[in-house]
Write a structure and sequence with these properties.
heterodimer; A: mainly alpha; MetI-like fold; 2 domains; 3 strands; 66% helix; elongated; B: mainly alpha; 72% helix
């Protein structure tokens, strides 16, 4: 019942998924973006990988992690150091490919510098490097996408599962609740909350999570309804399995597949929503450099085309990749629906 | 049908109350006393100098206002009163300029409604033929190209496209084809002949309309295509062909009529977009509609306006869902809600 058949199922899904070039490419793009997000500090940073100062060697980026985690302090010569100035005194210094952090104001370069060898994608109104902002923006976008979908999945799976498993009045109550939630104008709720509370990216994630779980819950409900009626569930129950055990061990694993599709689309929607809010300057703190906030600077400074082209393209590529991933998953899970 | 409708309307009312309780609580739980905000004209206003003698009077006035606005009552009483007022279209006064919120909404409504009705016409006007073409000629080059384009359009964020249009087409350092903001030309004169006024209007609305439309027609034509592909394989379609019905009639009468259902029901769901969706577009193109009103209200923390738009938005969403359910019954006689617990 457990391991072997589900493995074969997984292998079949993977084979179906792989057979679509579009799906495979979307997976590669998603993986690349995840890699970018994870290694953002090593790609764009105003601290070097390695510095040799007065005969001693340091790895400032790693030290920075330690300091931020509260594990250690900056060694004396590097405390509050500006590594651009230390460059002359250092015996050895290795920079990351992009020598700026997203919030670093480049006093040597100009504000609104167009793309050049120094600033690959130009600078914004404060002289911050757009490329660095883009790389680190990946992290914010993906975090928002994943956290929001995680919240949605937990609520959706629990409520949808309960409704589908128990049916009856539990189902009626939960279904009414879902309908009520669908009536909330999400965008206006976010705007209302953003107008009232101080800007915070976490608040945005929570609201997007709390208002977007209904699709997953509906899928989950119908899946639970379908699976619940099958013989193996009956068997598990007659063997004395408790409701909780039957739900978690038998029904849930057999109902999860369609939710994955929903979750993939959910990531795209959440990223789009967050960048839209950043673009409007609502709910996202002003000091945070996100794709949407870079783009919004272009609105008032229409000559700075680089502020619009690159972050917008990044949002577009990411959203498309997650949408295609969802498409590919759906086709793989349900070969009947696949085109041709 | 009548009983179903009554049940639905009852539930709709309950849902509206539940939703507005949420909105009301958020705004009331907000840090900052509404009376203070009322006096200061929202957070956007400057702080005046302090005069000790006047201060006592001001405190007294605040106290009076608090009583007058009912803010000395417990929260649930406040909510019930607010709900009573809102049902009489009394949405309170704006913190910013003390004007009636209802007046502000009313004067901005025509633009938003015009923009969205035109967008709706264009959306359906393009989506239906495109969907049919793509489904009828499945696998052809035209289908593949249009599927690809439609997919890309669907994923293009509207705020990006809007910004790009402003930068590259609206008189920045690049082309100067369209006006970047507002509704009228700088030298606009109400005495202009009709064709000139109309031309000016369309010239200003063209780009906002484009940005509003492309995403939804992409979405709708995708929905229509897949729904037609499903119907195409049905037995009765084969039967129709077998008995010699012309291809044109098969497509228009047998396939299209049965696959149009999801498209029609979407009509109701587009209603809330009337306000919500226009926030970004109206903000980008500085069009004085409801969306822009909401955006400015948020930035100024003008709670009465925000809460009013939230309530109107919820009401539209709920009515939209109801309409799309009713349309479903009208379009597809096979579907009936009778006997189903609503």
């Amino acid at each position: 019942m457990s391991a072997a058949p589900s493995e074969r199922y997984g292998a079949r899904i993977w084979r179906e998924f792989k057979s679509s070039r579009r799906a495979l490419w979307s997976l590669r793009v998603v993986a690349l973006l995840a890699l970018l997000a994870l290694s953002a500090d090593f790609i764009a940073n105003d601290k070097p990988y390695y510095i040799e100062l007065e005969g001693k060697s340091y790895a400032p980026i790693l030290i920075d992690y330690g300091v931020r985690l509260g594990l250690r302090h900056w060694p004396e010569p590097l405390l509050n150091a500006d590594f651009y100035r230390l460059e002359e005194r250092a015996q050895e210094l290795v920079w990351p490919p992009i020598r700026y952090s997203p919030t670093r104001v480049d006093l040597r370069g100009d504000t609104f510098a167009p793309p050049s060898a120094q600033h690959w994608l130009g600078t914004d109104f404060l002289g911050r490097d757009v490329m660095a902002g883009m790389v680190h923006g990946t992290r914010i976008s993906l975090t928002v996408g994943l956290v929001v979908v995680a919240i949605q999945a937990v609520i959706g799976i629990v409520l949808g599962g309960l409704a589908g498993y128990y049916g009856g009045w539990v189902d009626i109550v939960i279904s009414r609740f879902i309908e009520m939630m669908l009536g909330i104008p999400t965008f206006f709720l976010i705007i209302t909350v953003a107008a009232v509370f101080p800007p915070s990216i976490y608040l945005i994630m929570v609201i997007l999570g709390l208002t977007g779980w209904m699709g997953i819950a509906r899928y989950m409900r119908s899946e639970f309804l379908r699976v619940r009626a099958q013989d193996f569930v009956e068997a598990a129950r007659s063997l004395g399995g408790s409701d909780l055990r039957v739900m978690l061990r038998h029904v849930l694993p057999n109902s999860l597949a369609p939710v994955l599709v929903s979750m993939s689309f959910g990531v795209a929607t959440a990223i789009l929503a967050e960048s839209g809010l950043s673009f409007l300057g609502i709910g996202v703190p002003a000091h945070l450099v996100t794709w949407g906030s870079i783009l919004s600077a272009a609105r008032a400074n229409t000559f700075a085309w680089w502020l619009a082209v690159f972050p917008g393209a990044a949002i577009f590529v990411t959203v498309t990749a997650y949408n295609l991933l969802g498409d590919g998953l759906r086709d793989a899970l349900d070969p009947k629906l696949a085109p041709r | 049908m009548g009983r179903y409708l009554i049940q639905r309307c009852f539930l709709l009312g309950l849902t509206f109350i539940a939703i507005t309780i949420i909105g009301f609580s958020i705004v009331r739980l907000a840090p900052g006393d509404p009376v203070e905000l009322f006096f200061s004209g929202g957070l956007a206003a400057g702080v005046e100098g302090v005069n000790p003698e006047r201060l006592v009077q001001v405190e007294q006035a605040k106290e009076d206002l608090r009583r007058q606005l009912g803010l000395d009552q417990p929260l649930h009483i406040q909510y019930i009163r607010w709900l009573g007022r809102i049902l009489h279209a009394d949405l309170g006064r704006s913190f910013k300029d003390q004007r009636l919120v209802w007046d502000k909404i009313r004067e901005r409504m025509p633009l938003t409604i015009t923009l969205n009705s035109l967008a709706l016409l264009i959306t359906y006007g393009i989506a239906i033929p495109l969907g049919i073409l793509s489904a009828v000629k499945t696998g052809s080059i035209a289908d593949r190209v249009s599927t690809l384009i439609v997919f890309m359009l669907y994923s293009l964020p509207s705020f990006w496209v809007g910004t790009m249009i402003i930068i590259f087409l609206c008189g920045g350092d690049f082309l100067d084809w369209f006006p970047p903001a507002g509704l009228h030309a700088l030298d606009y004169d109400p005495e202009w002949p009709l064709y000139r006024r109309l031309g000016d209007y369309l010239h200003h609305l063209a780009m906002p309309l484009l940005v509003t439309t492309y995403g939804s027609f992409a979405f709708l034509s995708r929905v229509l295509r897949s729904s037609m592909l499903e119907v195409k394989l049905q037995d009765y379609v084969r039967t129709a062909r077998a008995k010699g019905v012309s291809e044109r009639v098969v497509i228009l009468r047998h396939i299209l009529r049965n696959s149009i259902i999801p498209i029609v029901t979407n009509l109701g769901l587009l209603l809330p977009a009337l306000i919500g969706g226009s926030v970004i577009i109206e903000t980008i193109f500085s069009l004085p509609g409801l969306g822009y009103l909401g955006y400015q209200a948020v930035l100024a923390r003008d709670y009465p306006v925000v809460l009013a738009l939230f309530s109107v938005g919820s009401a539209l969403t709920l009515v939209g869902i109801l309409i799309s359910d009713l349309l479903l019954v009208l379009v597809d006689p096979r579907i009936s809600f009778e006997g189903k617990p609503a």
